């Protein structure tokens, strides 16, 4: 049976996510703000959760109801037959986004929806589900827009950017989903060497290695939301897991390297690499930026230097950006470099001519991915 799904993504990454969904087999893919609508069967739902690299959550819309105010929302939610989706011995949680004139507090709105569901259970069955905000059996997503509310089942549970391999993180790490998107925006492929000279806890090299070895990022997670749905198909899921494991590659076509001046950061990156079983493939080395050298004649550099919003002082970072530009120009001829920055003035300090500027949202901060062709 074909269903309509909605994948939530970071702002500015809708096109990348849409392309990824099409590659995974999604049909009728439509980009929207902060998300992508698409169609497919249950197997596709499981596959997108398992393989999606740039997506936060995959929602299954089940109803669109009137929600002019709290009373109308409560009555509308009660008209839905919740026995199709939820048993009283299962736990639930409700997350809400959006608002209107009378429903302008997401916690209050979520509470009305939860009350409507458990009151229906109590009236019909004499017992009700308990709330578990940390790991519910059924996670319901509610989105208020004007006087309507779209109710969906969250098939992912915890956000898909939390792969499960990265207990050790730096001070301001990139989300794994953004790192994967940057690789796509840079048009990197596994036949090209990859280098991050400011790798921190290693997110960019790790995501590059997982992609190059065709390792599904969802393999490291303990659970997905759909695994506690009433229609969960265990055998279908096991087949997809088996297929994913059998499709993995064992050798990188080209080197993937991360370096950082901090020995602590390199140890964190190596620990994360061990967690996903790729520590013998990806290389992490402790090295000052002034000492880095290319291992091959061509490749892609992507780095995410501090830009004064979360780490460091922007006035003190100009020297770092200038040094990046000098190192790129002097040592990496034949390569293509990308710098993600949220500070336009710091970007100017690189001292190289950009060949492209790509707008990117990084956790709510408007940033630009600067491209440099190094001749």
Chain-wise SSE layout:
Layout: E1 3-8, H1 14-23, E2 27-32, E3 35-40, H2 42-51, E4 57-66, H3 70-78, E5 92-99, H4 106-125, E6 138-145, E7 148-154, H5 176-185, E8 193-196, H6 203-212, H7 234-246, E9 256-260, H8 263-275, E10 283-286, E11 299-303, H9 314-331, E12 336-341, H10 344-348, E13 356-362, E14 365-373
Parallel strand pairs: 5-6, 8-9, 8-11, 9-10, 11-12
Antiparallel strand pairs: 1-3, 1-4, 2-3, 4-7, 6-7, 12-14, 13-14
Helix pairs in contact: 2-7, 3-4, 5-6
InterPro entries: DNA_methylase_N6_adenine_CS, RlmKL-like_Mtase, RlmKL-like_Mtase_CS, RlmL_1st, SAM-dependent_MTases_sf, THUMP_dom
GO molecular function: RNA binding; rRNA (guanine-N2-)-methyltransferase activity; rRNA (guanine-N7-)-methyltransferase activity
Protein name: Putative RNA methylase
């Amino acid at each position: 049976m074909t269903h309509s799904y909605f994948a939530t993504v970071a702002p500015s990454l809708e096109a990348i996510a849409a392309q990824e969904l099409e590659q995974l087999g999604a049909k009728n893919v439509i980009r929207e703000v902060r998300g992508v609508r698409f169609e497919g069967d249950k197997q596709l739902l499981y596959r997108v959760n398992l393989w999606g690299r740039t997506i936060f959550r995959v929602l299954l819309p089940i109803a669109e109801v009137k929600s002019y105010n709290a009373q109308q929302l409560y009555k509308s939610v009660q008209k839905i037959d919740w026995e199709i989706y939820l048993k009283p011995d299962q736990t639930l949680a409700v997350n809400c986004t959006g608002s209107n004139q009378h429903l302008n507090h997401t916690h209050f709105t979520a509470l009305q929806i939860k009350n409507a569901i458990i009151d229906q259970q109590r009236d019909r069955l004499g017992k009700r589900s308990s709330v578990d905000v940390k790991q519910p059996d059924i996670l319901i997503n509610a989105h208020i827009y004007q006087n309507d509310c779209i109710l969906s089942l969250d098939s992912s549970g915890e956000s898909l950017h939390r792969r499960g391999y990265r207990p050790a993180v730096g001070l301001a790490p990139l989300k794994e989903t953004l790192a994967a998107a940057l690789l796509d925006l840079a048009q990197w492929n596994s036949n090209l060497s990859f280098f991050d000279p400011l790798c921190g806890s290693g997110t960019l090299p790790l995501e590059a290695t997982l992609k190059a070895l065709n390792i599904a990022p969802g393999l490291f997670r303990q659970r997905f939301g759909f695994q506690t749905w009433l229609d969960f198909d265990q055998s279908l899921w096991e087949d997809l897991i088996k297929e994913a494991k059998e499709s993995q590659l064992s050798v990188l076509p080209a080197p993937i390297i991360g370096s950082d001046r901090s020995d602590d950061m390199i140890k964190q990156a190596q620990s994360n690499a061990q967690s996903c079983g790729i520590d013998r493939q990806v290389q992490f080395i402790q090295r000052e930026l002034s000492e880095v050298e290319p291992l091959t004649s061509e490749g892609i550099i992507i780095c995410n230097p501090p830009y004064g919003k979360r780490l460091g002082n922007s006035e003190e970072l100009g020297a770092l950006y200038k040094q990046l530009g000098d190192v790129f120009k002097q040592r990496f001829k034949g390569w293509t470099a990308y710098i993600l920055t949220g500070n336009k003035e710091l970007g100017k300090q690189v001292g190289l001519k950009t060949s492209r500027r790509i707008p990117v949202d990084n956790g709510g901060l408007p940033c630009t991915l600067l491209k440099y062709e190094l001749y």
